Amino acid sequence: MRIVIFILLSGWSSLLFATDYYVGGAGAADSNPGTASQPFLTVQKAASVAKAGDVVNIRAGVYRETVTPAQSGVTFQSAEGAVISGLSQVTGPWTLHSGNIYK
Questions:
Q1: Higher pLDDT, 95 or 5
Q2: Less CB within 10 Å around the terminal CB: N or C of the chain?
């Protein structure tokens, strides 16, 4: 009986000690602790520290990065206006190559 209770309690422990992390906004830096007042700069930083049961809150903004979570069971939720894109932003002038093709 004690083993069953221990197993049940250990399964709930990740939910009891879950952490909310924040990404983006004023003063964001990956050296921050990821709190609401000191958010991470990148989604990947939050994904690398979050554990099962944790919630990553992504504030509005464009995040040009590939995200690989370190663990499963993490919830990622975003504010309206948050965009995560693996595409790199192209800067510089575009020139017409041919027809509707630019380079």
A1: 95
A2: N
